Amino acid sequence: MHWKSGWLAALLGCLPLAFGGCWSSSGSSSNTICVEGSDTMVNVAWAWAKRYKKDRPAVTVNVSGGGSGRGIASLSNGTCDLADSSRDMTEEEIQRIVEKYGVKPIEHIVGYDALAVYVNKENPLDSISLEELAEIYGEDGKIQKWSQLGVKLPGGDAEITAVGRQNSSGTYTFFREHVLGNNRDYKANLLSQNGSKDVVLLVAKTPTAIGYSGMGYKTGDVKVLKISPKKGEPAVEPTIENAKNRSYPLTRPLQIFSRGEVHGQVKKYLDWIYGPEGQRIVENEGYVPL
């Protein structure tokens, strides 16, 4: 964005979730911290920023979503201070930062999330295996109808509507790696959504849908399925306790990446996130604190 008016830019900076990006504190005030990235983490990131501003009114934390890939790209470009991510950085992404800044990106694990699988609340299914999910979501998948899972929906032998995330999303990447496997891609007719909340909303209004999103996005309009590694094995519910003890198969870390070691206000902010108040917010938002 190129704004001729300084006061207009400052005004927009105070509306972190209303616009698609923010500016790194290295290029503006040292009391402004820019955080960008994972839509899975955007709710907790917003809650952190809001609380931090209340306690420290001189410091502004601007938060923007758009997906883990977008946040990591902004970190590499120097347009954000911290990148929220629900996936690991690739070797190429790491090398890009090393070549440009002479430092390695540093991973900060700030909590954990259980990636939940949702169906419409009227769906009678209660559990599903990773193997079955792979055949629903994967290219050339063998499971295309609900009847193949022993489910009968109103309106006959209904086709399964598979809902997922866009390819810049860390959730998209995590699901592909841990459910489909690195050598298999998604099927062509996946209904890709831009946000975690959008996945749940679409599943809620679509009787034939199944979708994946962070457990913090659960509402009363959808049902969360228990997950087992293989068909016939015990299925586990995505809860805070099951994510803590790692018994839920799709547990993942919530990561924040920085360009090398953090300093100044950015370090103070990260230290606060690791502290009691920051971790309390993690739990309040439906995720697993450290």
What tags apply to this protein structure?
290 residues; alpha/beta; D-Maltodextrin-Binding Protein, domain 2; 2 domains; nine-stranded mixed beta sheet; two-stranded parallel sheet; 10 helices; 11 strands; 33% helix
Kindly describe this structure:
By secondary structure, the protein is an alpha/beta fold. It has two domains: 6-112 and 254-284, 3-Layer(aba) Sandwich (D-Maltodextrin-Binding Protein, domain 2); 113-251, D-Maltodextrin-Binding Protein, domain 2, CATH 3.40.190. Helix content is 33%, strand content 22%. The chain is built from ten helices and eleven strands. It has helices spanning 6-13, 42-55, 68-77, 91-101, 130-137, 170-180, 196-205, 240-244, 264-274, 276-284, and strands at residues 32-37, 60-64, 82-85, 105-120, 127-129, 161-165, 191-193, 209-214, 222-224, 226-228, 251-259. The strands form two sheets. Strands 1, 2, 3, 4, 6, 7, 8, 9 and 11 form a nine-stranded mixed β-sheet that branches. It has a two-stranded parallel sheet with strand order 5-10. Strand 6, helix 6 (170-180) and strand 7 (191-193) form a beta-alpha-beta unit. Helix 3 packs parallel to helix 4 (91-101). It starts with 5 loop residues before the first helix and ends in a 6-residue tail after the last helix.
Distance between the termini: 37 Å
Helix content: 25-40%
As a percent range, the share of strand residues is 15-25%
SSE succession: HEHEHEHEEHEHEHEEEHEHH
Q: With helices defined by DSSP (H or I, 4 residues minimum), what is the helix count?
A: 10
Structural class: alpha/beta
Q: How many runs of DSSP E, i.e. beta strands?
A: 11
Shape field: globular
Largest sheet: 9 strands, mixed
Which runs of at least 5 residues are low in confidence (pLDDT < 50)? Answer: 1-21, 25-29
